[in-house]
Design goal:
It comes from Roseihalotalea indica. This protein is mostly helical and 346 residues long. Helix content is 77%, strand content 0%.
Length: 346
């Protein structure tokens, strides 16, 4: 015969098979359990001792349950129900302890254990009033728990989508903020270029009056006048749109045409030194003064344009602005000598 500890271990193992195996739907009497214990090698006195131990677990578990110490109550009453699977009260109280502990911690595993002991109690005593009430309470709790789980799931989904939408809004707002900033800088460049063109056009508009004024001077050099007229025609024929500000070649062509016109004007006014009567003409002096002022304004607007391009390019090259597809602009470079307005000493 196996020793007492081995026999008790074999008995508990058989009880586990009864509780969790294919035989757990059967109702075992105390006599059935005693026979199982004897078959496992327990003596009758050892069997009685195990039952006494089970009753002690039951007594302590009941006390813990009444004191609302559901953790210890569940442990003690589960031990009692394991040693006395035939005892309806032990199984009922174990179901109760797990249900109350599940309510306290909102833990589904405790509800599963409670349901297990409820079913065992009903298998022993189908009309057990207390366990029927527990079953109703458990079902209600599970419905509430299911609703809470579903609500939390919906809340989590809403929270997740809220975060996604919030991040998307921030990114979109950031994109439009950066995009609009680049558009504003580009408009500054375009506006500055328009002012450059305005001043060049103003100079071109002064030339017909200047030519008409000097044509009346006797023996005035016709070749110089012809050069001015041709340079003006060439300069006004070169047109630069805002899309061309990214084309260094077109800007260079435009700058060269304007420089040629400026050089022709300088030669024209320089030749006027040889014609005192022309220099004495009020209309000529007025036109010459306007030309000097226009050249100064051209220099100023060209500088402002290049400053606008510098600000724009610095932003366009910087991350994440460089992902938006804004191409850098070209600076308007001119011959330093062309920045000097033509002067005549009277």
């Amino acid at each position: 015969m196996a020793n007492s500890d081995e026999a008790l271990e074999n008995y508990l193992k058989k009880l586990m098979e009864i509780q969790y195996g294919t035989r757990d739907e059967q109702h075992f009497t105390e006599e059935d359990l005693k026979n199982i214990a004897l078959d496992a090698g327990l003596t009758e006195s050892a069997w009685q001792e195990s039952q006494q131990r089970a009753k002690q677990h039951l007594q302590r578990g009941t006390a813990y349950l009444n004191a609302q110490n559901y953790d210890d109550a569940a442990n003690e009453l589960e031990s009692a129900a394991s040693l006395m699977p035939h005892d309806a009260e032990a199984n009922y109280l174990a179901a109760k302890a797990f249900l109350f502990r599940g309510n306290r911690y909102n833990r589904s595993s405790d509800f599963d254990r409670s349901e297990y002991y409820i079913n065992r109690t009903l298998n022993i005593t189908p009309a057990h009033t207390g366990v029927m009430q527990l079953k109703t309470e458990l079902n209600n709790k599970r419905r509430v728990l299911s609703n809470e789980t579903e609500r939390k799931s919906r809340t989590n989904q809403l929270t997740k989508w809220g975060i996604i939408i919030g991040v998307a809004i921030v990114l979109i707002a950031g994109y439009f903020n950066i995009y609009n900033g680049m558009v504003g800088l580009e408009e500054d460049v375009n506006s500055a270029w328009a002012q450059v063109e305005n001043q060049y056009q103003r100079r071109a508009d002064l030339i017909p009056n200047l030519v008409e004024t000097v044509q009346g001077a006797a023996n005035y050099e016709r070749e110089t006048l012809r050069e001015v007229v041709e340079a003006r025609a060439a300069a006004t024929s070169v047109q630069i749109g805002v899309d061309d500000l990214e084309d260094a070649g077109k800007l260079a062509e435009y700058a060269q045409a304007q420089e040629n016109l400026g050089s022709s004007l300088s030669r024209l006014i320089a030749v006027a030194e040889d014609y005192p009567d022309l220099r004495a003409t009020e209309n000529f002096r007025d036109l010459q003064s306007q030309l000097e002022g226009t050249e100064n304004r051209i220099s100023t607007e060209r500088r402002r344009f290049n400053e606008a391009v510098q600000s724009y390019n610095a932003k366009a090259r910087r991350f994440p602005n460089n992902l938006l597809g804004f191409d850098t602009k070209e600076y308007f470079e001119a011959d330093p000598q062309s920045a000097e307005p033509p002067k005549v000493s009277f």
